Amino acid sequence: MKEELDTYDKKILFELDINSRISASKIAKKLKLPKETVNYRIKRLEKNKWISRLYTIFNASLFGYSYYRVFLKFNKLTASTETEIIDYITNDPTCANLRIIEGKYDLVFLTIQKNPGELKGFLQCFLNTFGMYVQDKNILFLMKTHKLNQKFLYEGKTTRTTFSHLESKDFTLDKIDLGIMKLISTNARIKLSEMAHSLHVDSRLIEYHIKSMKHAGVIVAYTIDLNLIHINRELIQMDIALKDPAFIQKIISFFDKTNTCLFIHEMLGIYDISAELYVENDEMLRNILEKFKEQFLDNYVYYDISHVYKEYVINWSPFHV
User: How far apart are CA 128 and CA 124, in angstroms?
Assistant: First the structure.
């Protein structure tokens, strides 16, 4: 039987969602708890699997990459072939995320590529192997990402982080930068001393490089992925085609106020935006959809709802750079 979360646990998870590298002493000061208590609670939350991962969000467009979301619909796919497809995509270093979904499509993955030519090459190789099973596909270009803060466990102060995938600063990554990215991409709370030991450099140099990448916008945020089973939530992906993109900001504010939304992506393709909602049940989802339709009935063309059955990989760092 899993241990229930108390108010302090929820507040700690709220703070880790905003910044998963925040020190225990800073959380302790905000919550008026001893530092040792905060450390103990974080370790307990990880041990009891309330936390699935603590990861870092990067903006690879600043050093020449583009983000593409690929939707796939399959025909006559067996469980073993589905596993082969998942392994094929997730084993490629360009894969940042993959989801098995139930809806209009069966699978959606996020890939980080240098240019459309590299994306075409990857997809051609994939289709050469699995094309016989693909009934339909759609490719969308990510233009902007909005990271909202997790408020479905504790409704704290709203914090929003927005970053564009269209800007390029020609930021040059060196060996130390790449090493840091690899270490913190899926382990955001790793200590400076551990990174220094792993990369064989002084911890002060590690700290300098992290600050430089943060200042340049390469490091966007440190955040948390919660165990949906433990928190009794289901991830819903809502992809929307709009009549007028001018309403995007109002739609973002709408979803933010539902206290169920963590990410909203602006895209170029058959959909204009994609909202990721964490709902308790279908009734909660229906209530959100009804309110959405009431408020934006004249502003959208259609939307598709996908229940995320399983999620593989959350890794915003393209390790092949």
Answer: 6
- Structure tokens that stand for 60 in this block: 């690879």
Query: For residue 319, is it within any domain?
Result: no
Domains held by the chain: number: 3
Residue 86 lies in a domain: yes
Q: What is the CATH number of the domain that holds 1?
A: 1.10.10.10
Calculate what percentage of the chain has a pLDDT beyond 70. Answer: 98
Q: Is residue 77 part of a domain?
A: yes
Same domain, 44 and 75: no
Q: pLDDT tens across 156-204, in order?
A: 888 899 999 997 767 788 999 999 999 999 999 999 999 999 999 999 9
Same domain membership, residue 232 and residue 308? yes
Q: What is the CATH number of the domain that holds 122?
A: 3.30.70.100
On whether the pTM is more than 0.85, the answer is: yes
